[in-house]
């Protein structure tokens, strides 16, 4: 907590100092171009990463569901064999797998 607090306190002064040094070296065009670069980069990153993150989240969720089903089958394999419940288990697993494959393609 102390490390984060010290960085939050020191950062505005550091940014101000380097902005002033940049202004002394290059005039007003230097700081404006640097801050413009950061603003444009942040907006582009937000626009491009939004859909990618939600898609990746959904794919990871579906992969987790498939792994969970697969683990359930391994744990309950003996019970499934005794009750002759293979067809129902296979159909449930096929549904989960087909959702994962459909989402991945």
UniProtKB/TrEMBL annotation:
Domain (ABC transmembrane type-1): residue spans on this chain: 1-102
* Keywords, in A-Z order: ATP-binding, Membrane, Nucleotide-binding, Transmembrane, Transmembrane helix, Transport
Query: Recorded GO terms, molecular function?
Result: ATP binding
Q: Which domain of life is it from?
A: Eukaryota
> Tell me, what's a Pfam family for it?
ABC_membrane_2
Coiled-coil region? none
Q: Does the keyword Transport apply?
A: yes
Which protein is depicted?
A: ATP-binding cassette sub- D member 4
The organism of origin for this protein: Ameca splendens
> Upper lineage ranks?
Eukaryota, Metazoa, Chordata, Craniata, Vertebrata
